[in-house]
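Below: protein 1.
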Amino acid sequence: MSFVRVERRFQGPERSGNGGYVAGLVGTALAARLDDSHVPKVTLRMPPPLQQDLVLAATAEGARLTHGDVLVAEGAPVDSDFLADATIDPVAPEEARAAEALYRGLHNHPFPTCFVCGPANQGGLRLKPGPIGAGRTACTWRPAADLGTDGLVDELFLWAALDCPGGWTIDLDGRPSVLGQLTACIDTRPQVGEECIALGRYLGEDGRKTYTASTLYDADGRVLARAKHTWITVDPAAFN
């Protein structure tokens, strides 16, 4: 058991934590206790509170993030085959950079303070996932030095970077959504300062839920990490 806090830098909406970052807190704690046949699936149960003491407990059977008696998020192991179709075909860095100019969040972002993709968060990852055809997004990402402790990017921030490239495959203007569930696998960690490519893909929707996938590649075209998401349609005014 450990105590963690979601500092304001890591917010998603103005009053709560970024879903990918918080899922990463739970997911990395659980992943450290799993073998290669399983990956962590993290479900967010409420908007993660900012700047509050949270309790994180993890075993090989699962993980829980709580605020007092309230469950904030929980993780469970699932078969690694769940992510068998999560890898998105890569694109050239030039195509990913060109897509950034079309990133809709620069002008009409439902959560502009988002740690991963918010233009108003100066301490964020600054991802700009733009469209590269129907149902797909791409962008580049050069992780800053403070995102790693040994010259490699911490797994927590790879979880975060897997978040919004999937989210922007949704029509977030007409269907504002927040992350409800993230299942991820970190294959290898890139060096800080290395240019990476992040891709997102739309998978489908059912009622208020939308399903997407994302993949991170390094500069040599190696898969760094893969994920699948479930997004929940919301009223942004309830979060900002």
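Below: protein 2.
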Amino acid sequence: MAKSRKSRRGATAASVAETVDGGLAELIPDPDRARAWTLLLDGAPQSHVDLDDPGFLSFEYQRRLGHVIDLVAPPGRPVRAVHLGGGALTLARYVAATRPRSTQQVVERDAPLVELVRRELPLDRTARIRVRSTDAREGLAKVPDGWADLVVADVFSGARTPAHLTSTEFLDEVRRALAPGGWYAANLADGPPLTHLRGQIATAAARFAELALVADPTVLRGRRFGNAVLVAADQPLPIPELTRRAASDPHPGRVEHGRALRDFTGGATPVTDASAMDSPAPPASAFT
């Protein structure tokens, strides 16, 4: 395992680089926040963590997932959450900070990455967070029926979501793990002509009664590659409040739902295990 450290802010902070299963992982200090770090995998930004303020979410897509976490239950109420994909455990830390006494399971296949993050960016010892180092779908299968108030999917391998996490069969497992009234949220990435994104919306619509999509308007118009957060449930979602929060972000997002979201799919059909493909690779310009 390769390891290197390079000073960024004198003796008080240094970057960390280690080879993990997913490639070269780097923890880069944030020059503007004393104990904050950005996790990169093979040069692609993955997560940002502020150890002094885990309620701070820097990345655009993580802020949008943070809105989902805020709205899934009344403020401050503990929840049971499953995170498929761990990264720097940013969202699990956010839940623990904003909803104390929550119980969480994180499924992250890359065990060396988990070891690096837990060593360099330790979790609050009072946080009820269990981390499993296994495949996301295999880990989800171990969640008891009806256990989770929220399942968050944020899984990328080589900057692409694996095919087996994009199908109706995968969502059947999500539904099995969700408690009545529970929500599913997924971080999706796509670019023009948005074939993958449209297919994922059609797939979720085949399994959930209510959907909402939050993204930068330029992504929704197919003008650039980017992230979109899909939210799904079996009861009405708080669309007005989600819309207000997304619009007030530093990079404002647009919320699509109802008829407009159905029209957005453009006739795409649900994805099954037999037809599933990895999400498209981002262009090199996506991280520059």
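Residues 1-11 have pLDDT under 50 and may be disordered.
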